[in-house]
Every structure is written in structure tokens, then in C-alpha cells.
Amino acid sequence: MRDKIESIDPVSGEVIKSYSLPKEEEIGEIVDRSREASLSWGDTSLAERSEYLGAIREIVVDELENIVDVIQRDTGKPEVEVMMSDVLATLELIKYYENNLEEILSREKRKTPLIFYQNESYVDYEPYGVVLVIAPWNYPFQLALIPTVTALAAGNTVVLKPSEVTPYTGEMIEKVLEQADLPSGVFQVIQGDGEVGEKIIEQEPDKVFLTGAVETGKKVMKKASKNLIPVQLELGGKDPMIVFEDAQIDRAVKGAVYGGLANSGQLCISVERLYVEDSIKEDFTKKLIREVKDLDIGDENSRDFELGPMIREEQIDVVRDQFEDAISKGAESLTEWKTEGRYLFPQVLVNVDHSMKVMKEETFGPLIPVMGFNDEEEAIKLANDSEYGLDASVWSENISKAKRIASDLETGNCYINDVVKNIGNPYLPFGGAKKSGIGHYHGPEGLKCFTQSKSVMINKNKTDEINWFPYTEELSETAKKLIHTQYGDIGFLRKIKNLLELRKKLK
């Protein structure tokens, strides 16, 4: 295990800061503190936790300039993108849980079937205990703080392991939450690489939440399975965008450019497969190229741009491999392959097919492959021909048609006539189908994913229950009558007669 990691400015290549990695015993001590703190934090009221969420929200707003500066240095992103995608989306979710926490997690009364008519039933939502959040590097603020805040709101303590690519942002998150005056041990950060993550899992947290690549998800799941630790995975995508001839073409073009190239394509819900109806494909592609060529690419001397550098330098090689594979199999590039430092200029490919890596493997870079389709059936078939199922978008002025197609797409999330923004709606659950993930976060469902449901029944009967020992022939006949009455088609009058008789026996 290496002894340090570095945060490197992807624009200048300079080391921002080095971080010493913890020894195994230090990791154990941190998790132990988290476990001890979970005993009291889990007992705090929902109202108290809502107040803490409000405090975190206010601190993020007050520290906005510093937060934006840190994220920009760590990732090289444009300022607007940091504020809109990393910060604004995070604040919206915090505010949602701040205002709705009590409604979502309060004791929930449930119906009780007639056969248990003297019982009451309810569900409590209780925290797991210690949650390990493993965050990625592409959105190091949003994708670290949102699961962290959600887990805290549900009554868990959190150990956050930021990505080893963006530890500077992880340190900033730690400082932000320190200002919220959370009780000692409730939130802690452990800097490190994948090996450190494995060491934390060996300390047996009560749940692991990972955002990352599919292969990373498999490793984490395998490690956690040794102690049956529940794992929630938000993984990669190969998201299709389907454009029909009745779409608003100019808007769809702009949507494709933004969806495919925002954050230089380093986005799990970016447009990675663009399917355009044959009748408009040529015109659409010409407009697409014009839009792409108008984008402002950043450089070392400017922070005012639209496309930043590749945050992780090795990702350039991944994109190059897919680009060259496609060209070797007959694809045509409508843009020049060009890199300057970590800046990778956007690429558009045509004449692609599903034999190419670029249509099968996650790209995570500024490359848009365009493929035609003939009709709805073919579009759905192409979109579903993937081992991923994270996000998709359908573009058509015929909303009924678009809804029908959305229902047939094998994906956890879908947008009609827009891209990307659905992850910013805190009222909706977000998660992937197929190999794109396990579980959801965001929305009521996402909050409950950080809890364990406890079902409780209260029996108000004062006498022996009919199903208790001893078993008798009379009890057998009663059970038979109960089954026919409750679940058979015996007619209304006979049902009433039987129920009256059974009521006397069930008292």
C-alpha cells in the first residue's frame, strides 16, 4: 500500500497537496469512533437531524466561493458547471430532505388483514449504523456529499473515502461539515486509494455506498460479501439518446452536445450513444458538428470556457482506444483527434455500429458516436442492446409516443426532450438497471435505502389465539371455512354467514 496520494491540478499539472495515508490501526480507530457515535446519533429525533441539514445547507451557501475554487482546482471544470452541477444539485437535495425528512421516515401505520382483526401494524425506519461512502472523481462534491447527507439524515454515522484523484475536494467537504458542529465521530473522512477502501470494509461498516465503475463495484461487493455487508452501487452507463424526425431538431442538437460533452463527457449519465432517425440524420449531424466546433476549450490561462481537461489523465487513453477501434472497423471521424496536455478536443463519429467498443463500453470522455435508425422498433432494440441501463432520453414532439418508448427502454431513468437534469430532481429516485447499479438514492426511496425497516404488530386480544396448540379436528374445520370464506367465490350471503360464525371463534 502506498504511503501518500496527491491532488494534481489537471490544468497546470501542479501538485496542489499531498496526503499521507492512514495505517491499518488508524482506520480501525476511525471506524470504532464512528460506531460508538452511531449509538447516540441514531437516537436523535428527525427534527434535530433536519436542523443539522439546514445548518449544512447554509454553510455550503456561505462557503460557495471557496467550494467552487477548490473543485475547480481539483477538476479543472468551468465555474458555471461547478455551481450548476456540483453545488446547486447538492443544495436542492439537502433542502428537500431538510423539509421532508419527518414525513418520509416517521412511523408508518400499515393495514392489517381481517384474519388478524384485533391487531395493529406499523413500520419503523431505523439506521444501519456506520455507512462507508466511497466517492468518485468526476463530481467529487455532489457525489460525495449527497449520499453522505442522506445517510446522516437517516440516522447513520458516515465514513467518507473521497477518490484518490480528488482528495483536495474531500478535505474541503470535511471542513465544511466541521462547521455544522455535528457530534464527534458522526462524520469522518479517510483519504486513500482502493486499498484503503478495502481496509475500511474489513472493519465491517454496516453498509457500503459506492459511486464508481462497474469493475470497482464488483470488487467492493466481493469484499463486502465476506461479512454479508449490504452494498449499494451507483455504477456506469452507456446512455442512449433517441431523436425522432418529429423532434425540435435544433433543440435536440444542443441537447446532444450538452449531454455528450458536459464535464468533457466525464459523466455517468452523459449521452454516449446518439441514435437519429434516418430521415433527419444527415441534417442533424451537420448541425451537431457546427455546435461542437463552436465550443470554447479551456487552457492554462483561462477559467472561462465550456470544456475542461480530463480530470484523470489515464482516461484519455480509454477514449483513444475506443476512437481507434471504431476507425479501424469503418467509422468516420468528423472532427480532428487533438489533445493539448489533459485537454481532449471533442470527437464526433459516424458510420458506427454495435461491433465497435465505442457503442458497447463506457467512454467517459468527449466522444459522441452517431448512428441512424429506421423506426421505433429498431430504435428501442438498439437502445436496449447494452449491458448498461442507467439513463436514456427520447426526443419527440409526440409525447404519447415518447412515453410509450420510454416504458420499453431497459433503464433506471429516462428523460423526454432533455438530458442529464433528472439526476437533479430530489423528488425522484435515481439508480441503474442491469450492470449500472444496485439500489437507488434521491427521493423518499433513496432516504429509505439508508434505513432498515422494522415491522411491528400489536395484538390486543386477551385470550388464547385460535392457531395456538392444541391442534384439533374442530380447528382444522375452522381453518378450512376461513380459507373458503376469505379467498373463495362462495357468494355474498354465505360469506356474511361464515364471517359471523368465524368472528365468534376468533375472539
TrEMBL record:
SUPFAM superfamilies: ALDH-like. This is Lactaldehyde dehydrogenase CofA. The keyword Aminoacyl-tRNA synthetase does not apply. InterPro entries: Ald_DH/histidinol_DH, Ald_DH_C, Ald_DH_CS_GLU, Ald_DH_N, Aldehyde_DH_dom, Aldehyde_DH_NAD(P). The keyword Oxidoreductase applies. GO terms for molecular function: oxidoreductase activity, acting on the aldehyde or oxo group of donors, NAD or NADP as acceptor. It comes from the Archaea. GO terms for biological process: aldehyde metabolic process. Keywords: Oxidoreductase. Belongs to the aldehyde dehydrogenase family. Gene3D superfamilies: Aldehyde Dehydrogenase, Chain A, domain 1, Aldehyde Dehydrogenase, Chain A, domain 2. Residues 3-456 form the Aldehyde dehydrogenase domain. The active site is at E234. Pfam families: Aldedh.
